[in-house]
Amino acid sequence: MNLSALASQLSERAHGTVQTDYPLAGLTTYRVGGPARVYFEPADRDDIAVLAEVVESASGVPMLVLGRGSNLVVADSGFPGVVVRLGMAFSWVRSARPEEDGTKMVAGSATPLPLLANWAARRGLAGVEFAVAIPGSVGGGVRMNAGAHGGEIVDTLRSATLFDVRSGALAQVPVGDLGMTYRYSQIHDHQIVLDATFELMRDHEDAVRARMESYRKHRAETQPGAVQNAGSTFKNPPGDSAGRLVEAAGLKGHRVGRVSVSQLHANFFIADEGAKAQDVYDLVHEVRHLVKERMGVELHPEVRFVGDFASRSA
Ligand SMILES: Cc1cc2nc3c(=O)[nH]c(=O)nc-3n(C[C@H](O)[C@H](O)[C@H](O)COP(=O)(O)OP(=O)(O)OC[C@H]3O[C@@H](n4cnc5c(N)ncnc54)[C@H](O)[C@@H]3O)c2cc1C
Fold first, then answer.
1. Fewest CB within 10 A of the end CB: N or C in the chain?
2. Is the CB of 228 under 6 A from ligand 1?
3. Could you read off the pLDDT of 220-229 as tens digits, one per residue?
4. Which residue from 297, 281, 280 is spatially nearest to 243, judged by alpha carbons?
């Protein structure tokens, strides 16, 4: 089945939005890149089951689950398959068992991480305040094991509901089976996180809010703010910081096309108006090569590149 036929089948059978050649740049924080060949925003869980049935009859079709696009660079040629983005119907938070001690919460995967942090703070619950200024979603946060200020998702996550688009299987997977390590999980591209259950700790709301405020302040002082980027470009190598290494290699301000290494924080790469996704890719490649050459350390990207990029020899 070709992708146009797949889009027609989805439109006929699902209630959500189906579009072809749908621009993705505006759905990512880098604001670069091309369209999704097929874009699907399911209206509910039934729509996701429909997606599985349609994809099953179109084996081998590439799939991308898009959260808030804050850790992604989509190629200028776009994504040559189906992009699934969970919308408002998947953005909610509630107490898991309010009749018990009320420290467990469940959140839909489209819930913004700052909303999750504020929801918990309002109830005097601690453990996710590190997420207050991470501009991702719960689903993206689980997949990436997002973290900051000494905390990460895996610390309080207890389980995640995963839907496997290839097999159609729905399962509540305990955190120990998600293979979560530093900015990594074993969740595959064909698995959709539908919701996540967290177990938090009781604390005073004022104390939780004070920590959140100090994290916000620290970021405002040390990271570039409302500009086009995707947060940390590289993962920190054991015992060191990627930003320190890029800076020590003399690469602050280093530029490819319309993308440059931030002067404020060397692990943030900033895209100017008119930048290409390929510029981001090339800058990451070049900085990685120069840091290895000058500092002897191999850096690994935290940012994910999706679609087809022209590879460069070092
Ligand atoms: C200014 C800025 C600051 C940042 N600071 C931090 C930080 O302090 N710490 C940190 O860890 N990250 C940080 N990030 C990166 C980013 O916000 C996190 O990685 C976040 O968890 C990504 O969530 P997302 O919804 O945007 O995911 P996306 O970027 O949309 O996707 C990231 C990955 O998750 C997958 N994914 C998304 N949603 C789902 C889902 N529902 N089911 C299955 N897979 C899914 C995607 O397929 C992709 O592989 C920052 C980014 C920016 C722009």
1. C
2. no
3. 898 887 779 8
4. 297
